[in-house]
Amino acid sequence: MANDDHPAEMSYVHGASPMPLLGETIGAALAAAAREAGGRIALISRHQGIRLTYAELDREVSRIASGLLALGLSRGDRIGIWSPNNAEWLLTQYAAARAGIILVTLNPAYRVNELEYALNLSGCAAIVLARHFKTSDYEAMLRILIPDLADPAGRVESARLPALKRAILIGNDAVPGFLPFAAIARAATSASDAALAKIAPRLQFDDPINIQFTSGTTGFPKGATLTHHNILNNGFFVGEAIHLGPDDLVCAPVPLYHCFGMVMANLASLTHRAAVVYPSAGFEPLAVLEAVAEERCTALYGVPTMFIAELDHPDFARFDLSSLRTGIMAGSPCPIAVMRRVMERMNLHEITIAYGMTETSPVSFQSAVDDPVEKRVATVGRIQPHLEVKIIDAEGGIVPRGTPGELCTRGYSVMLGYWNDHERTAEAIDAAGWMHTGDLATIDDEGYCAIVGRIKDLVIRGGENIYPREVEEFLYRHPKVQSAQVVGLPDPKYGEELCAWIRLNDGESATEEEIRDFCRGEIAHQKIPRYIRFVDDFPMTVTGKIQKFIIREKMIAELGLGENENSAARGG
Questions:
Q1: pLDDT (tens digit, 9 = 90+) per residue, 34-83?
Q2: How far is the CA of 67 from the CAs of 39, 171, 181, 189, 438, in angstroms?
Q3: Pick the residue with more confidence: 214 or 231?
Q4: Final residue of a domain: which of 156, 172, 203?
Q5: Which has fewest Cβ within 10 Å: 25, 29, 62, 477?
């Protein structure tokens, strides 16, 4: 406790650790795994019927890496991958890393304009794509950008995509204009093998190896540029936090184009010689339950809505999930009732919560497997090893423990910068190397971090700061509420008033007054939403983030409210 003689401890934490950082490239890490655990299963792609040991994976990755060089790609070139989860995704990730080619991860939900923007910003020389997924026809969309795509070897010349030289299609179909994925390995020659052998020892772990696009809520997304060192170490320490080992099987229904899949699942498994299991191309709760039961998976990943869908599946009770032990839940807050169900009904007693952002590879905080359930839902755990975090006020000063402020991260995990965007890089990473996240957070006396909102989402009502996330988390407690989003709307008297968009559980109905009655006496009166709307869904970015500015704009238009200076300034 602070007193007059001992000032309050400040909101700064660092992850002291006896475990050293890994000082190798991803390709070298895979080669080591093949030497040490060659006979162990590395990958199970259930929907494709593919199972690869570490030795088999290593050999196939080398063949594909050599083939990419034979097709004309060079160290430092960019290769895009536009596909749902499959074995080819992992092979491309590791082959690109072995050849020093930068992997550009493209969201499977992209449409034509977004694809064109991402490929041109990153200057992709090649693209690996699935033919289609769900309602997305990737082949047709690429042909809109390249109408004369016809070369059987996948060679490309395009005015709209001037850097693109090769189009590679996942699958064995002979499709005019595309090189089949299997042909990459067949293209390898003794000359390309020799070139690969020369490249590998020259690669440095600080080389850029991945460009991941952040969600664009107010404009085009930015390309966070990550190194071998960034993502290999983050995957390793995430795996350490859940006590991964060679006997574990990680069920990963999360998308690979995002750090959750390619780092926290793929690289965590690689660095611990565990197996990664893809239950299906996209998230299907039944496929997840089948994968866990039939493969005897020990770890399960997902966002809260995934776990809810699995728990609520009508066939849930017939699956034996007793093999499960641990896992990761991330992406959005988890109501305590959901966490208890996950722990008790899915045997995930050691499941952890993780927090981070693409620009930090991604994880900065993670709960421990033995943290109390209350800590796992109320916080995002404690600082990861070898990282630093401080919470600062608007003037850049570190605030006392328990005081909200902007979370800043420094350490091995911070990206090199935004690809070809020095201005926005300088806005995000300061001269001392701190990544300014834009997230509002607190750190308590035990070092646990709670995310209380986004700086741009802060509502100032009558001079008082209100954090929408605090109100959202309270609304989650209502038994009828599935999810809630809270924004500030302009108000002539108070400056801003709260508005809540609420999605109810299936089959439920509620009134605005019922929600307000639930709040009265439980939270401060100024935090009770003045405006409440019941909705079926929320406006989302292609990466699944809520676009609160659209909620705000729609309500301003519906209610005929005039923007005031405060809300206009935070309209993004």
A1: 999 999 999 999 999 999 999 999 999 999 999 999 999 999 999 999 99
A2: 25, 16, 10, 7, 42
A3: 231
A4: 203
A5: 477
Tell me: cis bond preceding 362? Omega within 30 of 0 counts.
yes
Domain identity same for 293 and 188: no
**What domain range includes position 506?**
458-569
Q: Are residues 469 and 414 in the same domain?
A: no
Domains in the chain, number: 3
Is 176 buried (19+), middle (13-18) or exposed (0-12) by CB count in 10 A?
Answer: exposed
For the chain, the C-alpha Rg in angstroms (whole number) is 24
Q: Give one DSSP letter per residue of 95-147, joined into a string.
A: HHHHHTPEEEEE-TT--HHHHHHHHHHHTEEEEEE-S-BTTB-HHHHHHHH-T
User: Closest Cα to residue 464, out of 318, 378, 566?
Assistant: 566
Does residue 145 sit within a domain? Answer: yes
Average pLDDT score, the chain: 93
CA dist., res. 572 & res. 568, Å (int): 8
Amino acid identity at 52: L
464 shares its domain with 449: no
Residues in the chain: 572
Query: Model-level pTM?
Result: 0.88
pLDDT for 460? 85
Q: Domain check: are 192 and 288 in the same one? A: no
Residues 368 and 297 occupy one common structural domain: yes
Segment 267-296, tens digit of pLDDT: 999 999 999 999 999 999 999 999 999 999
For residues 436 and 422, what is the distance between their CA atoms, to the nearest angstrom?
15
Locate 535 and state its tokens. 């909705």
Residues 240 and 319 in one domain: yes
